[in-house]
Specification:
Elements (H helix, E strand, L loop, with lengths): L2 H11 L9 H14 L3 H7 L8 H17 L3 H6 L3 H12 L6 H20 L11 H8 L3 H28 L10 H7 L2 H23 L8 H22 L2 H4 L51 H17 L15 H68 L4 H113 L13 H27 L5 H25 L4 H23 L13 H16 L9 H36 L2 H39 L5 H7 L1 H30 L4 H23 L7 H34 L9 H43 L13 H8 L1
Helix pairs in contact: 1-2, 1-3, 2-4, 4-7, 6-7, 7-9, 9-11, 9-12, 11-12, 15-16, 16-18, 16-19, 17-18, 17-20, 18-19, 19-20, 21-22, 21-23, 21-24, 22-24, 22-25, 22-26, 24-25, 25-26, 25-28
Length: 914
């Protein structure tokens, strides 16, 4: 067999169409495996198919592969073992898909893997499981242990078959005739192979169980009997349900299992066992569900002519197989004209045929008359010839005596020849007359048939006209009913829109009223608000009012589109509520006079908003819907809010861009100055100190120098990232305009830069004191941690608007980690130096008495308690300071919840970096 032909058959059998596999393609695949003695071609084609992405394709692959394992060459199993793990992976993958063919493919792949493993362990069993009793005994090798294990493996095998059976049935809607649909047949087709396998497995398990009960105690086989009873019940039910499906009735004869299972405890019951036999009729094959466009399924010329005639008939009288009685498009006036045209054409053809028939009749009559005239002429000639013959006879008699006998004979022969010629001509004329008579009878019969056909056509046209008139009346009634229904629907939709608008307006009024009621309960506010946040809310409300007016105009122009108006009303209500609430919370930290003015302005704004929302109830009072009063209240709130802005926000927005560059430059300069001072201190320490003190000073100052260098690298990386952020976000605007537009973020950068420069200066001062012996190591550790926190703040402020995939951001984060490592080095060197110096100041207990030591111990305990108390107080004080610091920094430095990332606390930054 040609490999290309087998490849084509495999691709036709395994495709994405949800139809059953055609038997001829599957048979070609099976014959191909026998021809090449293996399944190399099959797997080479299948490996190129997207089985993991198309469930229908995988399902049809399982069906074809099952057929090959059953009926293909024995080497199919050997060639397929290498793909066993791939089938397992595919089964697990499809098992995650709970709908469609997902679970079907997973269960089928599990069955195929089980079948391959079973036949690998038991090579005596052929792929189709057809064995005699003697071969079954030889498979167990007359060993009861082998029979026991073989029965367990058969139970597992049969369990997988039943699982696939049940999964297919569960995926079908058995309340409908799914077996006659192509989708249902696609799922049911593989069950034929399953039924064949199940019938053999059931027969073999019964025989093996009887054999085991004859060799082993009944208690030992209790588990086998229980498992057999469970599978017997399932298999019996599935066989019964399958036999009732129309699809299986014409393809396979399914056996029915006995009413009661075999009694294995009674050995004679084996003789009552009847092996189930599945019968497949010779003419049975899978339904031909391939598209009619394939070349090997084209119809011949006679069928094409018949279809052409049927199509022409349907064009005249309409398709008789139409399933939609209310499809008036094919019975309207356009098609009626086409039918009348065709009927008139037929009438013309009939008239033409009649005219041709009349012409033929006339011509045949003319031919008959001519033939009759010819016959008369021949008869006259014959009479004349007879007369001449008589004359010749008379003359011969007269001349007989005179003429020679031979001459008379010659004349007589010539006369005889003339007579024979005349008779032949007469016969020819008679034959022509008979042919003309037969032609006349044939044309008469055809005319009668045409007249009969014409009568049937006229009757059919009359019936079609009656049906058309009835359908037209029904159409008019339906259109009238549809028109009234549409009017009702339009009115209902209009009422529904009014109800939705009214409910939305009432809900909005309740939200605003609830916000106004909260002015009477100031205890509900757990924190104070900011004037800057209040101004943001006011700007949002102004934009929302413009959006609401635009949506109201669109609603009046197109009442069907109400979604935008409802959204605008709801948004205005919530923004108004937020503005009132933020105004109330802003009053808590404002001076008394501005607080009272702001409270009154917020209340007036709420009342004006309620009045404005009231205009939205009726469409006719749109002219009264004036938002001037609401905007006036917002303008008043804006003026009061701008008066309450903190002094930290007094920087002109035009100066923010220059101030960012100045602060970063100042920070860089401060770092360079601090580095120079540390180098100077190190030089002085080397000149004036020796021993442990010099070692400690060199270690501490060296770690401080490394920290300054790491901070310098961080500042350079931060500048590059700020430049990238400005270039990518400013668009056509200038950098100054970008900084002014993002003022809150810019102020955060300025604050972080100031904190880094200040921290570097303070740390250098602390290191100078430590080197001179007048400072504390703890001050130096705290300063280094403060610098780490400030740099973390700078990194956080820079990351707010940076692209997460930016290489400059990655470089900044790398520099931040370098600062963290340098800070840890400063802390470690400081702690190490402190311990090294403290080791040199150990107390001398050699000259102290017991009483003195006891006294010193008590003094130390008292000092410990004092220090613990001071430590607790200092921690409380530090907590209050941090709380106040970040409360003020949240307003003055641009950190605002919901708009930009909040700054990390000092303790969080230090803990994260360490």
């Amino acid at each position: 067999m040609d490999v290309s032909k087998m490849t084509v058959s495999i691709n036709k059998a395994i495709n994405t169409q949800e139809v059953a596999v055609k038997e001829k393609h599957a048979r070609t695949c099976i014959l191909g495996t026998h021809h090449e003695k293996g399944a190399q071609t099959f797997w080479s084609v299948v490996n190129r198919l997207p089985l993991s992405s198309n469930a229908v394709l995988c399902w049809k692959f399982c069906h074809v592969f099952h057929k090959l394992l059953r009926d293909g060459h024995p080497n199919v199993l050997k060639d397929s073992l290498r793909y066993k793990n791939e089938l397992s992976d595919m089964s697990r993958m499809w098992g995650h898909l709970s709908e469609g063919y997902g679970q079907l493919c997973s269960t089928y792949l599990t069955l195929l893997r089980t079948k391959m493993e079973y036949h690998t362990k038991n090579p005596r069993f052929p792929g189709n499981l057809q064995m005699s009793d003697r071969q079954l005994d030889e498979a167990g090798e007359s060993d009861v242990n082998n029979f026991f294990q073989l029965t367990v493996e058969m139970f597992d095998y049969l369990e997988c078959e039943l699982n696939l059976f049940q999964t297919v049935f569960n995926s079908l809607d058995m309340s409908r005739s799914v077996s006659v649909t192509t989708a249902g047949q696609c799922r049911l087709a593989p069950l034929i192979q399953v039924i064949l396998d199940c019938s053999h497995l059931y027969d073999y398990t019964v025989k093996l169980l009887f054999k085991l009960h004859s060799c082993l105690p009944a208690d030992t086989l209790q588990g086998h009997r229980d498992r057999f009873m469970e599978q017997f019940t399932k298999l019996k039910d599935l066989f019964y349900r399958s036999s009732n499906l129309q699809y299986f009735k014409r393809l396979i004869q399914i056996p029915q299992l006995p009413e009661n299972p075999p009694n294995f405890l009674r050995a004679s019951a084996l003789s009552e066992h009847i092996s189930p036999v599945v019968v497949i009729p010779a003419e049975a094959s899978s339904p031909d569900s391939e598209p009619v466009s394939e070349k090997d399924d084209l119809m011949d010329m006679d069928a094409s002519q018949q279809n052409s005639f049927d199509s022409k008939f349907d064009d005249i009288f309409g398709s008789s197989s139409s399933s939609d009685p209310f499809n008036f498009n094919s019975q309207n006036g356009v098609n009626k004209d086409e039918k009348d045209h065709l009927i008139d054409q037929l009438y013309k053809e009939i008239s033409g045929l009649k005219a041709q028939l009349e012409n033929m009749k006339t011509e045949s009559q003319r031919a008959v008359l001519q033939l009759k005239g010819r016959v008369s002429e021949l008869e006259a000639e014959l009479a004349e010839q007879q007369h001449l013959r008589q004359q010749a006879a008379d003359e011969s008699e007269f001349l007989r005596a005179e003429l020679d006998t031979q001459e008379q004979t010659e004349v007589l022969e010539s006369l005889k020849q003339e007579l024979a010629t005349s008779k032949q001509e007469l016969q020819i004329v008679q034959g022509s007359l008979e042919t003309s008579a037969q032609s006349e009878a044939k044309w008469t019969a055809q005319i009668a048939e045409l007249e009969k056909e014409r009568g049937s056509l006229v009757n059919a046209v009359a019936r079609q006209e009656e049906q058309l008139s009835a359908l037209q009346e029904q159409l008019e009634y339906t259109q009238l009913k549809l028109s009234s229904t549409q009017e009702s629907i339009c009115q209902l939709a209009k009422d529904q829109r009014k109800i939705l608008l009214a409910e939305s307006r009432r809900a909005a009024e309740q939200v605003v009223q609830e916000a106004l009621r909260q002015f009477e309960e100031p205890t509900l506010f757990s924190c104070a608000g900011s004037a800057d946040h209040l101004l943001c809310k006011v700007r949002s409300v102004s934009s929302c009012i413009e959006q609401l007016e635009q949506c109201w105009s669109q609603y009046l122009a197109c009442p069907e589109d109400i979604s935008g108006l409802l959204h605008a009303v709801t948004l205005l209500a919530h923004l108004t509520s937020d503005t009132i609430v933020h105004g109330s919370t802003t009053c808590l930290r404002a001076p008394p006079e501005p607080a009272d003015s702001l409270t009154e302005a917020c209340k007036q704004y709420g009342r004006e908003t309620l009045i404005y929302l009231g205009f939205l109830e009726e469409e006719g009072i749109l002219e009264k819907a004036d938002s001037t009063a609401v905007r006036s209240c917002l303008t008043r709130i804006t003026a009061i809010g701008e008066e309450l802005l903190p002094r930290g926000l007094d920087i002109k927005q035009e100066e923010l861009g220059d101030l960012v560059d100045k602060e970063l430059a100042a920070t860089s300069a401060a770092i360079e100055t601090a580095t120079a001072r540390i180098e100077e201190m190190l030089s002085k320490s080397r000149a004036g100190d020796t021993g442990v003190k010099l070692e400690v000073n060199e270690r501490i100052l060296g770690s401080c120098t490394s920290l300054m260098q790491a901070i310098q690298v961080l500042i350079v990386a931060s500048k590059e990232l700020q430049r990238e952020i400005v270039e990518s976000g400013r668009g056509t605007a200038s950098p100054k305009e970008f900084y002014a537009k993002n003022s809150r973020w810019t102020e955060g950068l300025i604050s972080a830069s100031k904190a880094v420069g200040w921290g570097a200066t303070v740390m250098v001062d602390a290191a100078d004191l430590v080197v001179q012996g007048r400072g504390k190591f703890e001050e130096l550790m705290v300063c280094s941690r403060e610098i780490a926190a400030s740099t973390a703040q700078l990194v956080a402020a820079s990351k707010v608007k940076a692209d997460k995939d930016s290489p400059n951001l990655a470089q900044l984060q790398q520099a931040s980690r370098g600062v963290n490592q340098a800070t840890a080095a400063v802390v470690a060197s400081t702690v190490s130096g402190k311990l090294q110096i403290e080791d040199t100041d150990n107390m001398d207990f050699s000259s102290m008495t017991l009483t003195q030591i006891k006294r010193q111990e008590m003094d130390s305990q008292v000092r410990v308690l004092e220090l613990e108390n001071e430590l607790q107080k200092e921690r409380q004080k530090l907590g209050e300071l941090r709380k106040k610091h970040y409360e003020l920094a949240g307003v003055a430095e641009g950190w605002e919840e919901g708009t930009e990332a909040s700054p990390p606390t000092l303790q969080e930054a230090v803990t994260e970096k360490e």
